[in-house]
């Protein structure tokens, strides 16, 4: 599937070069500007936005017409973010900050060093974080909707046929029983998010399996406990999947800010299963991989461009 790593890998090499004092000195921040350059579905893109992206491309040692590529990238990013919003996909600040911190760590830098390079290069920390947010969200867009772009959905009959072609062996997958705990924060009260997060962390620390969750929640205000039922590993929400897999049975994931408040997931039980549904999902995922995540991304973005109203000034 489409991955942010493709874009961050070359940047990591460039950062290693820029980390030396001489390397940083060569990177001059472009002059600030705020004129509207492009309007995408009534959303303005300014020359300042484009300058930040051009600086980002230069930091990656990209050649060619950097300004033109920066403008196109900002148009595409605007389309991606709008599609994320349409589908209700929200990447929280906590998720973005964690990705930013992991990127610094993987490149053997402190956060202060990475901040310094981004500012000195004219990219800015804020611009890079919004880039990360858009790429993380776009990956979820493709996971949720990309299969319809990539072609016909595999039926259980198709999966059985493919299974027989492989000698009759059915694939296996882990099946999870999950529970969702939401500390609701209305849009008009987002200023309380930090307080609600502390409350959620306290409840998570006491979490000892799904049977007692509702009892714990009784004395709390605006807390919702939902049984999500059984989910096979290929069906897990992309933004939660890895954490669910790394959480022991009877434990809970970390607390995360979402568009409805803050929440965590409890892993009630897990088991290995093998049936036609597992085969369907497994072979569907293999088919998507064979089709190529980048192809799915390209086709989806082309559809968004065709429907969009893009005005260049």
Architecture overview:
The protein is α+β, with helices and mostly antiparallel strands and 313 residues long. Helix content is 54%, strand content 16%. The protein has a four-stranded antiparallel β-sheet, with helices on both faces. A three-stranded antiparallel β-sheet has the order 2-1-7. The N terminus is likely disordered.
Query: What gross morphology would you assign?
Result: globular
Tell me the series of helices and strands, N- to C-terminal.
Answer: HHEEHHHHHHEHHEHEEHHE
Strand content: 15-25%
State the end-to-end distance: 35 Å
Largest sheet: 4 strands, antiparallel
Distinctive features:
313 residues, 54% helix, 13 helices, 7 strands, disordered N terminus, alpha+beta, 4-stranded antiparallel sheet, 3-stranded antiparallel sheet
What's a concise summary of this model?
The protein is α+β, with helices and mostly antiparallel strands and 313 residues long. The protein has helices at residues 5-18, 21-25, 47-59, 66-86, 93-106, 111-121, 125-150, 156-165, 193-206, 213-217, 241-245, 276-291, 293-307, and strands spanning 36-40, 43-46, 173-184, 223-232, 256-258, 261-273, 310-312. It starts with a helix and ends with a strand.
Protein topology:
Layout lengths: L4 H14 L2 H5 L10 E5 L2 E4 H13 L6 H21 L6 H14 L4 H11 L3 H26 L5 H10 L7 E12 L8 H14 L6 H5 L5 E10 L8 H5 L10 E3 L2 E13 L2 H16 L1 H15 L2 E3 L1
Antiparallel strand pairs: 1-2, 1-7, 3-4, 3-6, 5-6
Helix pairs in contact: 3-4, 4-7, 5-7, 7-13, 8-12
